[in-house]
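Rotation project, supervised by the postdoc (A.L.). Task for the rotation student: set up a whole-complex structure prediction and record inputs and outputs verbatim in this book. Inputs entered:
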Amino acid sequence: MRVLALVLALVMTLTRGTTPKRIVSLIPAVTEMLFAIGAGPQIAAVSSFDTFPADVKKLPRVGALIDPDVEKILSLHPDLVVVFSTQTNLREQLARAKIPTYVYSHAGLSDVFTTMREIGARAGRERAADELARTVESRIDALRTRVATQPKPRTLIVFDREKLALRGIYASGGVGFIHDMVAAAGGDNVFSGVKQQAVQATAELILARRPEVILELRADPLDAAARVKEIGVWNTLSSLPAVRSSRVYLIADQRTVVPGPRVAEGVELIARALHPEAFK
Amino acid sequence: MTTSLGRRLMTTTAGFGTLAAIAIVASPLVGSTHISLARAFSRSVPFGENPDAQIFFIARLPRTLAGAVVGSMLAAAGVVFQALLRNPLATPFTLGVSAGAALGAMLAITFGWSFAVLGMAAAPVASLLGSIAAVGIVYALARARRHGLSTNVLLLAGVTMNAFFSALILFVQYFADFSQTYRILHWLMGDLDVSSYGPILTALPLIAISVAVFAWLARPLNLLSLGSESAATRGLDVPRAQRAAFFSASLATGAAVSVGGPIGFIGIVVPHLVRLMVGPDHRLVLPASALFGAAFLIACDVVARTILAPKR
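Outputs recorded:
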């Protein structure tokens, strides 16, 4: 028993003592966090979807959620791999190779800060991570106070649908960081009662919920003409208060959909769309 | 003989027609939300300010009509393919039409094609083109060795193309990101929530052509299901009838899939149910399946959109 405890303690000090120097991150949000806390030089490779910060362009790509390139990951001799909780196969393979992992899952806005602090601790940058989390949190709190006196519009948050059609609409339910970001920005999610991250919204469901604002959030940039066309698609549902008062907003900006250190900027973009008066 | 057939045809179409009519009228009355019909049909409130009317005319009615069109076309196409291939397991998707359609839709989604043709978005248009391509390839393969169509070669070509297109689909999927993967999955599940009449109207000319051919096809199908040699000795121009059956059923399937996605089960369940009720004569089975298919898919959709309501 005593020996076991000793061995355990030894293992723990050993693992705690070594700061990873070759991190592979399969999650863009976590990559951003690592760069923001100054752990950028410790990153050995990133996922195929990473675009921010610009430094990631020089790093090797090792696939992503569905298609992680195990061989390439192993060939890089990583000492920490950031994986999605659902990547069970990859996690098993890495465990067999005795490579430590940090398991990430998409959750609420407060979990973004937990992730930040945890990954900071793992990367040996506890202080910087805690500082970053505090800064971002206080920026969001400031925005929350700024819009606190504004009326909260009933908002439909759309994060995916077919191009140029009101089909296959996925809206945010009442859990998840996007719901939390809109709440912080002073919006009242029409699907806040649905306790799941994504709601498949039919035309009937949207007409029945009567949103006062329709907020479309997407990562890929969109030119002005395409934006006008995409917003125009909503005119079919002309009885919606949002359409009647021209409060359909399309924000094509990564910062609103990546749960990383730029979430405060994302919240501000949303708050400015929902409450332009508060920013005059 | 003919008079008794005429009478049976009348009673059959009347029976199944009533069923389809009831489904079409009743389905828009139910949904996940309660609406006031008086308000929905009131002319005193402008349409733009009338949520009840919009739920009825934008959410429910197009969805019901899409169900009717998709259900009847897939059921009728199922009947035709089962007779043409002389195989009770044949479905509208056996010959690769749906796999071609899925590949088209997937290319449109993955590579972000963004255009709209006559109220139809890029994915349905691409799915229609994909199904046409698949049909063309299968037809060319089946014809390559001899004049007329060998049902065995047709079946083999169809199954092979299905496998080949499925492989291509997975290959294209490799280039898709998360939200595109989501969209692809959504498309593959099938979806009648068209929220406008555009897709239905665009598919209508294709459907009209198929229906016209189906009307002529009923008797030839009876002969074809005896086998091509017996059919030929009874004076049927077999290659012509096979071509007509193959292309009309493929066209109907492609049109249906462009509206509602690949809703597979209708094309095999409905024809067999109808045969149990009216017997094997295609002059009865074909119209009855078209009508019953419409009623059946509408009923399934009503269940889907009321039971799953809060989640969807």
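Student's summary: The mean pLDDT of chain B is 87.
Supervisor addendum: The radius of gyration of chain B is 20 Å.
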